[in-house]
Design brief:
By secondary structure, this protein is mainly alpha-helical. It contains 19 helices and 2 strands.
């Protein structure tokens, strides 16, 4: 029988989230439908909203449910996500937020396409896209399963309804709606959970957490040390190259503020993990066979593995008074629903800009791109909903994609942001292939993919690779990117390979119809002379190309960041720094292509 009170509670909170999303969408200036306005809220996110939306990068439905589940099943020491994602925000702020924001990029893939070309950027788009879509699908699937158990609502109905609400206000307001609903999302989680904790803790069926009978701390066996380190590094560095993070970074008013928001959000991640940690510990100390819970239990009176993913809503429902669970379940369910919006917007933004515009329609108007993005929001929302309803191992798919983001995207993003002159398209493609092969060779138990290689410390009983092969794949990818880039330059410059063999046009075979402009025009405008088409650059970028670029050059669709443009009163800015003379030709990647 449907729990009417629970349905009313969820509807009320859904209406609250929807109303805030629509109201926030109206903050967009009328008639201003530029890419920056819709995808990055005009780079005008303030400090207060910025802190909340940056924290909500990771603090959402999967975060709170997963944290509570990890405490119950494995203990606090195995609950790595809060600390791993917090450190990812810290390292992202230190090494990536400032240079990415100063260059005025619009998506995370822009610097990759800047260095490796549009087509290679499109290839790198695939793991990023899959990660975002599967994450949104995983959130919707978990939400549907939770509502099906808690209020007896049909799972399909709850998933479709939740997806429609999130997609609607994202379609309406872009990042404005996502950012402002993030504020409500975190308030709902914080207030809803803290309101329930005292009642659940005081429940007579809950043993004292200090009791020796309740092991909610856990331990790491010596055999699992390297496995533990591997997953920790995956969370820390694999948590950086996500568009959901960089859309917040790039929407900040300044580069300095983007860094500050990253550091404050890291503290927020730890702080917001406290309620689900306590709820997981309370669940661990609960004698479930003595409560009004009538589901499956183990002989020891504990929840089965099929139920542990719903630890948090089960505690709210069975260990708190009805009026408390009414508020808590509604708040948490609405927050979970709201946390799917940023992934939908991220995937759509990358497709509209980095695939449609930079590969297929470089001269597309702003309005055309916005409409492509809106259609993409509908398609991504539809795909996530279908996957949530039809794929039983959706978290297995997301786990694999998050691994690919770590082993493929992190090394490439690190190189193009900090060591751009030491990499080119040949190295990028080789590193992509190496990382993919090494990661797939380890298998994926949740997807039923058998390992092709049993690395050292293989556990045949649990069928787990205890060797840190994910981190090995990332390091091999990083080495391959640098080495193959150097090797390609050496082979071409030494004459071992003819210029005609430079298929990607990024080392020596530079098209003759593209030349650099040594002197700026009277208006200080930087021009590319290919049929008189003006070249458009990011801030301090010093490379000009024509629209037929393949790899290793900036695409004319890429736009400058107004924050980094010199003061017009300073006069024309030379193309190459402070000197009007061109710099010596660099040996790697796009620096050779003008």
């Amino acid at each position: 029988m449907i729990n009417i009170a629970g349905v009313i509670s969820i509807i009320l909170f859904y209406v609250l989230i929807l109303a805030v999303g629509i109201w926030a969408g109206r903050k967009k200036p009328p008639g201003n439908d530029s890419e920056e306005e819709v995808m990055l809220a005009g780079r005008s996110i303030g400090l207060f909203v910025g802190i909340f939306t940056m924290t909500a990068t990771w603090v959402g439905g999967g975060y709170i449910n997963g944290t509570a589940e990890a405490i119950y099943t494995s203990g606090l020491v195995w609950c790595q996500a809060p600390f791993g994602y917090a450190l990812s925000l810290v390292f992202g702020g230190i090494f990536f937020a400032n240079p990415m924001r100063r260059q005025g990029y619009i998506t995370m893939l822009d610097p990759l396409q800047d260095s490796f070309g549009s087509r290679m950027g499109g290839l790198l788009f695939l793991p990023a896209l899959c990660g975002e879509v599967f994450w949104a699908a995983g959130i919707l699937a978990a939400l549907g399963a939770t509502l099906a158990v808690i209020i007896d609502m049909d799972q399909r109905t709850s998933v479709i309804f939740s997806a429609c609400v999130a997609v609607f206000y994202t379609l309406f307001g872009g990042l404005y709606s996502v950012a402002y609903t993030d504020v409500i999302q975190l308030f709902c989680i914080f207030i809803g959970l803290w309101m329930c904790i005292p009642f659940a803790w005081a429940n007579p069926h809950v043993k004292p957490l200090s009791s020796m009978e309740v092991d909610w701390i856990g331990k790491v066996d010596s055999d699992y040390y390297w496995f533990y380190i591997d997953y920790g590094l995956l969370l820390i560095f694999g948590g950086i190259p996500w568009q959901v993070y960089f859309q917040r970074v790039l929407s900040s008013k300044t580069a300095g503020r983007a860094q500050v928001l990253s550091y404050v959000a890291a503290i927020g991640c730890i702080f917001m993990a406290i309620p689900p940690v306590l709820i997981g510990a309370i669940a661990k100390g609960t004698a479930w066979n003595e409560t009004d819970y009538h589901g499956d239990l183990t002989p020891d009176g504990e929840l089965t593995s099929a139920q542990t993913s719903m630890i948090l809503p089960l505690v709210l429902q069975h260990l708190t008074p009805e009026f408390v669970s009414f508020f808590g379940l509604g708040a948490v369910s609405a927050a979970v629903m709201s946390s799917a919006d940023s992934s939908v917007l991220s995937a759509s933004s990358m497709f509209a800009r980095n695939v449609y515009k930079l590969i297929f329609r470089q001269n597309a108007s702003e309005m055309e791109i916005i409409w492509v993005m809106r259609v993409s929001i509908l398609i991504v929302g539809f795909l996530a909903t279908v996957m949530a309803l039809t794929i039983p191992s959706i978290y297995g798919l997301w786990s694999m994609c998050s691994d690919l983001v770590y082993v493929i995207l992190f090394p490439q993003l690190l190189m193009v942001v900090h060591f751009k002159k030491y990499c080119n398209t040949y190295g990028s493609l080789a590193a992509y292939i190496v990382a993919l092969l090494v990661r797939m060779s380890g298998g994926e138990k949740m997807l039923g993919l058998p390992p092709l290689i049993h690395y050292p410390m293989w556990d045949p009983k649990e069928e787990v690779q205890l060797f840190p092969f994910r981190t090995m794949a990332m390091v091999l990818s990083l080495f391959t990117l640098a080495f193959i880039s150097w090797l390609s330059v050496f082979l071409f410059n030494s004459g071992y390979l003819s210029p005609e063999s430079d298929y990607f046009n990024c080392v020596v075979n530079i098209p003759e119809d593209i030349r650099r402009v040594d002197e700026p025009s009277e208006a200080g405008e930087q021009m590319s002379v290919l049929g008189g088409v003006p070249g458009r650059l990011y801030g301090a970028a010093s490379t000009l190309v024509g629209p037929d670029e393949k790899s290793g050059r900036i695409n004319p669709a890429l736009e400058p960041d107004d924050d980094d443009l010199d003061d017009p009163n300073d006069g024309p800015t030379p193309l190459f720094g402070s000197s009007s003379a061109p710099p010596p030709v660099q040996p790697y990647g796009k620096q050779t292509a003008f």
